[in-house]
Design brief:
Order of helices and strands: EHHHHEHHEHEEHEHEEHHEHEH
Helix content: 40-55%
Shape: globular
Number of helices: 13
Oligomer: single chain
């Protein structure tokens, strides 16, 4: 029996031309038009023509990735794609999942995630924070490396993406020290990431507070499809529980490895990634090799996924 988990990518999966395979799809174009109208910006032109620097600005990337995820979901449904048993999203992708689950109106989500991006960007002055990917290391050893490297500053694991792929964040000096200590403890590689803030670290506490205040003004409903949240790997059903999870998420680790395992515990046999790129499909294969993966990168990929799932 096939049981589908739908997942939505977050910041980092964007690229110029990322929606090229959807140019003539009415549901996709209508979704981008709706988001563009809500923001007063032409998001389709941004993903198609750039410039890349503008696309990669956090305040643009977050609304663009939300819109891409929801547009792909709508294309899936328009094509007769099955209703997933459960959903999740990586960081920002959680907002796409909540829109798909009818818990959050898309137009509200577009303006909300732009506010989220601004709050996260403004929480830490430019240049003070940093993030780094640590590859090929043990999670516990990397956490120890962060504790040793802190020296009165903050550095901590923030993205548990898959076994052997962990992201740390905090004060720049502490992050740089942690890279070297992690390598001394057996990690194969550590590299600073080209990001503008130490996302998901406790340094973003002010952003979480601002987001909580904004979320209090946003209408939320009980999801029609279960959504597993990053912050505690749990399903939340009431609006207040969802608000709390979303606010806390901004300054808390993304527990993606555990989230994918939770999808499996709920019976998922197939993971469908709705949005540009194949990042989450790739991580899922590292987390659980028995999980079949499908990335809806364009219309052809959507048809292939539906055929594979029907077979």
């Amino acid at each position: 029996m096939t049981t589908i988990a739908m997942v939505f990518p977050g910041q980092g999966s964007q690229s110029l031309g990322m929606m090229a395979g959807w140019d003539d799809h009415p549901a996709v174009r209508a979704t981008f038009d709706e988001a563009s109208d809500a923001l007063g910006d032409d998001l389709w032109a941004l993903v198609t023509d750039g410039p890349a620097d503008a696309l990669n600005l956090t305040t643009n990337t977050q609304p663009v990735m939300l819109t891409a995820g929801v547009a792909t979901w709508r294309a899936w449904r328009a094509a007769g794609g099955a209703t997933p048993a459960v959903m999740a999203g990586h960081s920002l992708g959680e907002y796409s999942a909540l829109v798909a689950a009818d818990a959050l109106a898309f137009r509200d989500a577009v303006t909300l995630v732009r506010f989220r991006a601004q709050a996260m960007q403004e929480a830490v002055p430019q240049g003070v924070g940093a993030m780094a990917a640590i590859l090929g290391g043990d999670d516990a050893a990397i956490a120890d490396a962060c504790r040793e490297a802190a020296q009165g500053e903050i550095v901590e694991p923030v993205n548990f993406n898959s076994p052997g792929q962990l992201v740390i964040a905090g004060h720049r000096g502490a992050v740089e020290r942690a890279i070297e200590i992690a390598k001394a403890k057996g990690a194969k590689r550590g590299m600073l990431l080209p990001v503008s803030a130490p996302f998901h670290s406790s340094l973003l506490g002010p952003a979480a507070d601002r987001l909580a205040a904004r979320l209090a003004q946003v209408e939320l409903r009980m999801p029609t499809i279960p959504v597993i949240h990053n912050v505690d790997v749990a399903e939340h059903r009431t609006p207040d529980e969802i608000r709390a999870a979303l606010a806390k998420q901004a300054a808390s680790p993304v527990r993606w490895t555990e989230t994918v395992r939770a999808l499996r515990v709920r019976g998922a046999t197939d993971l469908v990634e709705a949005g540009p790129g194949r990042v989450l499909a790739g991580l899922a294969r590292k987390i659980d090799g028995a999980l079949r993966t499908h990335a809806l990168t364009d219309g052809h990929a959507l048809r292939d996924a539906m055929a594979a799932l029907a077979g």
